[in-house]
Write a structure and sequence with these properties.
Immunoglobulin-like; eight-stranded antiparallel sheet; elongated; about 90 residues
């Protein structure tokens, strides 16, 4: 399975951007937390070398990310990962 270099713009609850080194032109990022009944979905757009999605992770805790990346030739890659988000004002 290919590894996709992925960065999140921060680790504090609030507006964030996830960036993936990928040829993807489109896709989505789904965030889940045990504290939420429904997932949070961010739309992903890419330029052929990097793909980005922005949105809000509203509170601290453990989050799981699952992405679906689609290239211009309709190939799909589905990376996943976990992150712990801190509360606003925490150090």
């Amino acid at each position: 399975m290919p590894r996709i270099a992925t960065t999140l713009s921060g680790d504090i609850a609030g507006p964030l951007t996830v960036t993936m080194v990928s040829k993807a032109r489109s896709g989505e990022v789904t965030w889940t937390s045990d504290a939420l009944a429904e997932p949070i979905i961010w739309r992903l757009t890419g330029n052929g070398s990097a793909a980005k999605a922005s949105g809000v992770l509203p509170f601290a805790g453990a989050w799981t990310m699952r992405a679906m990346l689609i290239t211009s030739s309709s190939e799909m890659v589905m990376p996943s990962g976990q992150v712990t988000i801190r509360a606003q004002g925490s150090r």
